[in-house]
Amino acid sequence: MSGLGVLFRRDRLTGQVAVGLTGVLVIAAVVYGVGVASAKYRLSDVGAWLTARGKGIVVHANGPAAKVDGKAALPPQMRGHNIKVVQDGATVLLVDQDTGVVSRLDPSQLDVGASRPLGQGIQVLADAGKAYTVDSVKGVLQQIDPVGLTPVGAPATLPPVLGQAGIDARGALWVPVAGNGQVAAFKDGRTQPPVKVGGAGDDLALTIAAGDPVVVNSTAATATVVKPSGTPLTVALPATVRQAGRGGVLAPPATEGKTVPLLVPGTGSLVTVDTDTGRYSSTRLAMPKHRYRPPQMLGPKIYIPDETAGALLVYDSAGNRFETPVPVTGRPARLDVFVRDGLLWANDPAGPRAVVIDGQGGRKGIDKYRDRVAGGPGRRTLPQPSGAPPSTAPQDPRRPRPGEPPTAPLNVSVTPGAGTMRIDFQPSQGDGVLGYALKDVPPGLAVSPSAIPPGAGPFTFTVRGGDCGREYRFRVAVRYRDARGRTREQMSAPSDPARPCVTPGAPTGLAAQATASGTKVSWTAPPGASAYRVAWDGPVKGATTVTAAAGSAMSTTLGNVWTNGSYTFKVAAVNGAGTGAAASLAARLTGPAAKYPVERNGNSNAYIRSIPDANNGAVVATMNNNNGELVVVNCQTKGAYYQHPNAASLAGDMYANITWSGKTGYIIGYLVNTPGDWKSFAGPAVWTCEP
Prior knowledge:
By secondary structure, the protein is mostly beta strands. Among the domains are: 410-491, Immunoglobulin-like (Sandwich); 508-589, Sandwich (Immunoglobulin-like), CATH 2.60.40; 594-671, no CATH class. It has 2 helices and 53 strands. The strands form 12 sheets. Strands 17, 18, 19, 20, 21, 42, 43, 45, 46 and 47 form a 10-stranded mixed sheet that branches. A 7-stranded antiparallel sheet has the order 22-23-24-33-34-37-36, with no helix packed on it.
């Protein structure tokens, strides 16, 4: 076996530090049909690199023109393998998923240069000008140079097994850590404090939405948006998300906009989450039992890769209906689907077909084998993708035959609101329709309109009332007259569950005040909150939950926060729909000073020193025979241990910081009558001095 083959079988180079030392360099001059190796090519700025495994090449396609404007051959050892293209501007990396070798493609030369064997299963990512590798099995993260493919900075390790990673708009790598229910960030050789997104072992999926990390927890049915400020927004998703089974929901690795589409395999539930507001809509779609890949969103339309049919299912979220599917291969095939530069690309990596779709839904087929382009001299041109969509693709049902009842309403969609739930549906097909009514409405909830006549859209019901802590399901009934003149009803499938509330906004007017009872934190409440999560970091750390009270003003006193220093307070509003983004406040707190009498200083001297040490430190002032005199106590602290020479009981390390006769310093604690045992902190009446 060759040395290269042996290298492929080696350990994945623990820590990946040794990549630059032991990796072999493979140079392939692959600009065929061009006699000068240094020739430079200008490819379209709006385009994408696509694999064409059947020809052993990768091609660059111009998006607006839907034509190939460059191609490059793969090195012989990569041909016929599953190749993933990782592209970020001029950085184009080819990942051989069969061998674990990653290679760099130079777009200006149309050739494949440096190659490094990283090992099978290693994730390779490039975005926002950064490139990383992630060893999911060993839990090792490493930034790499996208040109030389060598390590940059120190690696980091997280508890394996790691989920699919992503890079945010600021160039930080985010990685789900299912073992402890967290998502962690890595940048400049260091991991950042992790964000809790669930429990240990939960199914987690990461999407980078408009540059921000979003983690969907299918086990808990939540979506957590980590904002640039570091304060997460948590959205409670419909309970059907928990039915996704092992592996969780299908979520795209990235979206250009703030809306993330989620598909629950097996149920047909399609959930769209607005990561900016924390609101979602959920639709129950009638879909065949096919093999799907994560949905992608471009404009108002959601494209669901159907690998069984070799097509894209197209759902118009604005119109709440399916459109005609977009054929890609017309046969079962693996599909690579992604959004880049405002265009959606669907590629058959094993064959000649690809499709590009613009933001208005316009679509064009691409023939990747088309010749007469930079990088290849051939003459053959294949026809563009065409063909009718498979009959199993979901579409509006055909009109029933005469005498048959109308079809049931389709696509029952629910959208929670503040005290409301909106239910949209697609009307029935057929004759004799009398109108539509909303079913399964619990007592005490109001529905408007009470009925919808046929052909009189919008086909929308609004439900008002209900409990934010409860989920509701609805069905839509079509009322029709049968062939014998009798009034009948045909029911839709149940909707996904919904709550009559939305994730609350962030509190405003956050303030913190040091008091003799602890720290008082106050804020103005946003609408719809049922509780608040209050957290603090500083000399004292902690968190608590406060139940919402009537009115817009809220406050709580933290009885255990009575240490002077700099703090950060965060308050987030909570209800059944989730946890809103937190308001944050940085504050420097100093506890209130209070007067207490001097004691145990009869016919003697008490020395006020510059440091908490009764034997050392400069003497600031001397008090003589002043028992009962009130002195200002600023705070207490631990200092040097002191033993009174004539009283065994007067021993300890507690000091009071006092102000007397305009002088401020420290005295041993037994000399001032603060609350409680002088050997213990008296707080919150007397705060602890800043550490």
